[in-house]
Specification:
By secondary structure, the chain is mainly alpha-helical. The protein contains 4 helices and no strands.
Amino acid sequence: METDPKQILPISNRLHGIHGHRLKGKSQVEIDNVGSEDRIDFKTIDEIVAEEMGLHSVEFKFTGSIEGGGGWKGDVKDMILYVGKVKSLGWKTKHNTEPAIGKIVREYAFRLYFLKCPISCYPK
């Protein structure tokens, strides 16, 4: 489970991709993937979160995965979205996965510690 790679992309990047695709698409309905072009495993995500939060000597415990891989029933063990169609319209991600994780953690920590606003007070 700790090595199952996933794609992570800040919501702002996804919205930018969707909006750009809507403006440049050729038909009323377009179906496409907006995602990162790389992947990251959970152990690396955990290490980035700990580093960004200034936590040292953190011990990670992984409970394993279900039969066939993945961390939960229905989870895909290894996948990456094809983003060629949206890229052909001029979109590209602003952040690869590792920097995106750090950015997300820093933004959340700022909201939590300085604004006293956990994720529950984000606009719906």
